[in-house]
Automatic annotation (TrEMBL), chain A:
The gene is leuD. Its EC number is 4.2.1.33. This is 3-isopropylmalate dehydratase small subunit. Catalyzes the isomerization between 2-isopropylmalate and 3-isopropylmalate, via the formation of 2-isopropylmaleate. Residues 1-123 form the Aconitase A/isopropylmalate dehydratase small subunit swivel domain. It comes from Acetobacter suratthaniensis. The lineage of its organism: Bacteria, Pseudomonadati, Pseudomonadota, Alphaproteobacteria, Acetobacterales. It catalyses: (2R,3S)-3-isopropylmalate = (2S)-2-isopropylmalate. Keywords: Amino-acid biosynthesis, Branched-chain amino acid biosynthesis, Leucine biosynthesis, Lyase.
UniProtKB/TrEMBL annotation, chain B:
This is 3-isopropylmalate dehydratase large subunit. Its EC number is 4.2.1.33. Keywords: 4Fe-4S, Amino-acid biosynthesis, Branched-chain amino acid biosynthesis, Iron, Iron-sulfur, Leucine biosynthesis, Lyase, Metal-binding. Pathway: Amino-acid biosynthesis; L-leucine biosynthesis; L-leucine from 3-methyl-2-oxobutanoate: step 2/4. Belongs to the aconitase/IPM isomerase family. LeuC type 1 subfamily. It holds the Pfam family Aconitase. Catalyzes the isomerization between 2-isopropylmalate and 3-isopropylmalate, via the formation of 2-isopropylmaleate. [4Fe-4S] cluster binds at C348, C408, C411. The keyword Amino-acid biosynthesis applies. GO terms for molecular function: 3-isopropylmalate dehydratase activity. It is an enzyme of class 4 (lyase). Heterodimer of LeuC and LeuD.
Length: 207, 467
């Protein structure tokens, strides 16, 4: 997983509440066998017209927000189905940080698992950040995870909260697997003990 | 040591380490893999340059996408074919044991595991599929996981978990004539609701449960997830040990005896604490089925569809009316006698040899009613072969049933076996959600014997009138 330290990037505003995972990535794209490549279907229904052409009014179809790496929305981002395809689609589009007044639980967890930083900030602040995000080429925000601040274009710093353990994982670029593998000695010890105590444990081999 | 439940014992036995925040690294004995939830996990391993820590604790099958008709033809739907071919490439690249489509051992992952002796008592078993709870019938802790977790298990042979709460559902007594494990489980879900087991692992206990064969216990544990539970469990006993003995991947000879000695320690201690307890009497349970689009909307076959007008809670009332509209049923109508279009006997809930025997008993010497499509889909190639050895295929074919190849089939609309809008189906599967068996399809969950009764009469029928 890529480390998340500081991110200085274009921010896009999607001033809506209850953006569910079906909006982020519709069910018909779930038969894929990859987690990459979903970016072009992210927000499919908002992004494309029925004939498949881009909707020129949708923010992520406009410059400079085509290159947005930060997304700001209103309440309950990521509700609905627990599909992990939602963070996969965001990440593949290029989004590394999502900011909202509240998130759906599983989506929130799935963001961390995929190296996306979800930031909880009160609605009033989200609205101010959305104003910043509308400033064309200057729609840049800086997120400094180590110091736990979002830095606005005018230099004002907005502090945010984050679970210390999750912060650590993001800063170090450790996914759950990397984290668990730090305990590899413990796993090996367990396996050795199992070998002693359950010598009958069969292996599966098929020729 | 304080008295412990069966769940506590299996859990304690598999904790590698407990982290400061209360999460445990839990060792996983068996990882079952299928084509739908594994591709991104393999891709993740590949991107990170990782391998499976223990391919020899892993088994892969194809089941969700496979057609259940002629297997020698190529698979038509390109996306289904792609998922299957991707799995075949992945198992080769990562050295994962695999039962291919044309093997007799192929079948629904939750039928294959116990059948092959891959799922054993006391194990921790996971799979990227919610009905992994089925394997709890072996007396193992078995639960479904997400795709990131599938990758985690592949790379580390462990999973990060917090312990569940303990719940016990006790069913005492002797089930009446025509009452099977499916009826017992539907009655339990009707009693505790689809959120009744949330956050808990349910241990099923009592004389009625001990009296069930392994297939029946699997039906029970399979649907624990429909009661909201993380997993279901039945303590291993002589029925379990006799079932396991001689299975292809089960321990043999002295190893088997040593394993049994350990498995015998796996029962809940006297006085162990349960966070929740429910007790039912088997004699109170009739052949049972669902009328709505949630597994908790159950009725005895002698019952009438409930009337939303009698429901005091507004939200519930609206929901009930919506279910009735979707299902095409009238408030207050007797459920028996409702005509069906399709009968599906299969799925990881009810596709084992015992289930097919129960259905054959009803079908024998009778004919599928005119206009009804009735399908039998064995849970595995081995179940199919055994049924053919016993002559069950002949009974079904003579009666006018379709005799198909093993797979998930019409349990979910992901392969060619699907309901068309408005069709009513008597189904032995586990989910009756809107559109589950195909868009607009109407599902009544019931037992294999009840499904067969519906097939030969053309309507929902009390099986006790036929046998
Ligand atoms: S038979 Fe149905 S419930 Fe069982 S694994 Fe297949 S799709 Fe899932």
């Amino acid at each position: 997983m890529e480390k998340f330290t500081t991110l200085s990037a274009i921010a896009a505003a999607l001033p809506e509440a209850n953006i569910d995972t079906d909006k982020i990535i519709p069910a018909r794209f779930l038969k894929t066998t990859q987690r990459t490549g979903l970016g072009r279907h992210a927000f499919d229904a908002m992004r494309y017209r029925e004939d498949g052409a881009e909707n020129p009014d949708f923010v992520l179809n406009r410059e400079p927000w085509r290159k947005a790496q930060i997304l700001i929305t209103f309440d309950n981002l990521g509700c609905g189905s627990s599909r992990e395809h939602a963070p996969w689609a965001l990440l593949d589009f290029g989004i590394r940080c999502v900011i909202a007044p509240s998130f759906a639980d599983i989506f929130f967890n799935n963001c961390f698992k995929n190296g996306i930083l979800p930031i909880n900030l009160p609605r009033a602040i989200c609205e101010r950040l959305m104003d910043d995000a509308s400033m064309g080429e200057n729609a840049r925000l800086t997120v400094d995870l180590a110091r736990q601040v979002v830095i606005r274009p005018d230099g004002e710093e907005v502090p945010f909260e984050i679970d210390p353990f999750r912060k650590h994982l993001l800063l170090e670029g450790l996914d759950d697997i990397g984290q668990t593998l730090k305990h590899e000695q413990g796993i090996t010890r367990y396996e050795n003990r199992e070998h002693q105590e359950k010598p009958w444990m069969p292996s599966i081999h098929i020729d | 040591m304080a008295p412990r439940t069966l769940f506590d014992k299996i859990w304690d036995d598999h904790v590698v380490e407990t982290l400061p925040d209360g999460t445990s690294i839990l060792y996983i004995d068996r990882h079952l893999v299928h084509e739908v939830t594994s591709p991104q996990a393999f891709e993740g391993l590949r991107l990170a340059g990782r391998r499976l820590r223990h391919p020899e604790r892993t088994i892969a099958v194809v089941d969700h996408n496979v057609p259940t008709s002629d297997r020698t033809q190529p698979i038509e739907e390109p996306e289904s074919r792609n998922q299957i071919e991707t799995l075949e490439r992945n198992v080769k690249e990562f050295g994962v044991p695999y039962f291919p489509l044309l093997s007799a051992n192929q079948g629904i992952v939750h039928v294959v595991g116990p059948e092959q002796g891959i799922s054993l008592p006391g194990m921790t078993i996971v799979c990227g599929d919610s009905h992994t709870s089925t394997h709890g019938a072996m007396g193992s802790l078995a639960f479904g996981i997400g795709t990131s977790e599938v990758e985690h298990v592949m790379a580390t042979q462990t999973i990060l978990q917090r312990p569940a709460k303990n719940m016990r559902v006790t069913v005492e007594g002797v089930p009446g004539h025509g009452v099977s494990a499916k009826d017992i489980m539907l009655a339990i879900i009707g009693h505790i609701g689809t959120a009744g087991g949330t956050g808990h692992v349910i241990e099923f206990a009592g004389s009625a449960i001990r009296g069930l064969d392994m297939a029946g216990r699997m039906t029970l544990c399979n649907m624990s997830i429909e009661a909201g539970a993380r997993a279901g469990l039945v303590a291993p006993d002589d029925t379990t040990f006799e079932y396991v003995r001689g299975r292809p991947f089960a321990p043999k000879g002295e190893d088997f005896d040593r394993a049994v000695a350990y498995w015998k320690t796996l029962s809940t201690d006297e006085g162990a604490h349960f966070d929740k307890e429910v007790t039912l009497r088997a004699e109170d349970i009739s052949p049972t089925l669902t009328w709505g689009t949630s597994p908790e909307t159950v009725l005895p076959i002698s019952g009438a569809v409930p009337d939303p007008a009698q429901e005091p809670d507004e939200a519930r009332r609206v929901q009930m009316q919506r279910m009735l509209d979707y299902m095409g049923l009238q408030a207050g109508q007797a459920i028996a006698g409702t005509p069906v279009d399709v009968v599906f006997i299969g799925s990881c809930t009810n596709s084992r040899i015992e289930d097919l025997r129960a259905a054959a008993l009803v079908a024998e010497g009778r004919k599928v009613a005119q206009g009804v499509r009735a399908m039998i889909v064995p849970g595995s190639g081995n179940v199919k072969r055994q049924a053919e050895e016993e002559g069950l295929d002949k009974i079904f074919l003579d009666a006018g049933f379709e005799w198909r190849e093993a797979g998930c089939s019409m349990c979910l609309g992901m392969n060619p076996d699907r309901l068309t809008p408005g069709q009513r189906c008597a189904s032995t599967s586990n989910r009756n959600f809107e559109g589950r068996q195909g868009p607009g399809g109407r599902t009544h969950l019931l037992s294999p014997a009840m499904a067969a009764a519906a097939a030969v009469t053309g309507c929902l029928t009390d099986v006790r009138e036929l046998v």
